[in-house]
Design a protein that fits this description.
The complex is a heterodimer of chains A (about 110) and B (about 120). Chain A is mainly β and about 110 residues long. Chain A has no helices and 11 strands. Helix content of chain A is about 0%, strand content about 60%. In chain A, the strands form 2 sheets. In chain A, strands 2, 4, 5, 9, 10 and 11 form a 6-stranded mixed β-sheet that branches. In chain A, strands 1-3-8-7-6 form a 5-stranded antiparallel β-sheet, with no helix packed on it. Chain B is about 0% helix and about 55% strand. In chain B, strands 2, 4, 5, 6, 9, 10 and 11 form a 7-stranded mixed β-sheet that branches. A 4-stranded antiparallel β-sheet of chain B has the order 1-3-8-7, with no helix packed on it. In chain B, a hairpin with a 6-residue loop joins strand 9 and strand 10. Classes of the chains: A mainly beta (about 110), B mainly beta (about 120). At the A-B interface, strand 5 and strand 10 of A face strand 9 and strand 10 of B.
């Protein structure tokens, strides 16, 4: 119930295309859903996040779509660029074991080809 | 804003020795800091959560006597890997949670530990 399932595991997109990464969760008590971008050898960087009372959030080329009833959320990267090539992790914030924590998806390795 | 640093960025140690990794929040106070471990091409695995001035809370399966965590101040947490073995080789990443904004975690750049 604490898991966050992320797909696909890897994704290849042509420059200018749309990259779509999906995540699903079971715990309805999760209350915050961030996406992180990680380059090789670096720590994750917060990209964009959404709360469950909002169905969509857009920041520049990045959009989160959130479907509360289906317990799914997705990241859309518009006009994908080679510089977007990285690993993307979705996460869900919840209370477990006595404190708040982030539960991470398995990650999606995105490659944007020029 | 919300910058977290880690030191060292890369360390090699011999089997049986101990190594300390520092995590600092540079421009905010982190009442809570988290330590993660990441193996190649895998996701982040939470090891422990530390609150300033309190004992760390370890995730199930993480040896608290092997991975010593100290959260001495609102800007500094340390992870000491004691009696390191080659299987402890990994990428260790810390994050800080801004006081009053418990939803947002800001991550450090990570520390690559190699045990020979």
């Amino acid at each position: 119930q604490q898991q966050v399932k992320q797909s696909p595991q890897s994704l290849i997109v042509q420059k200018g295309g749309i990259s779509i990464i999906n995540c699903a969760y079971e715990n309805t008590a999760f209350d915050y859903f961030p996406w992180y971008q990680q380059f090789p050898g670096k720590g994750p960087a917060l990209l964009i996040a959404i709360r469950p009372d909002v169905s969509e959030k857009k920041e520049g080329r990045f959009t989160i779509s959130f479907n509360k009833s289906a317990k799914q959320f997705s990241l859309h990267i518009m006009d994908s660029q080679p510089g977007d090539s990285a690993t993307y992790f979705c996460a869900a914030h919840g209370f477990s074991g006595g404190y708040n924590k982030l539960i991470f998806g398995a990650g999606t390795r995105l490659a944007v080809h020029p | 804003g919300a910058v977290v640093s880690q030191h060292p960025s890369w360390v090699i140690c011999k089997s049986g020795t101990s190594v300390k990794i520092e995590c600092r929040s540079l421009d905010f106070q982190a009442t809570t800091m988290f330590w993660y471990r990441q193996f190649p091409k895998q996701s982040l695995m939470l090891m422990a959560t530390s609150n300033e001035g309190s004992k760390a809370t370890y995730e199930q399966g993480v040896e608290k006597d092997k991975f010593l965590i100290n959260h001495a101040s609102l800007t500094l947490s340390t992870l000491t890997v004691t009696s390191a073995h080659p299987e402890d080789s990994s990428f260790y990443i810390c994050s800080g949670e801004i006081a009053g904004r418990s939803y947002e975690q800001y991550f450090g750049p990570g520390t690559r530990l190699t045990v020979t």
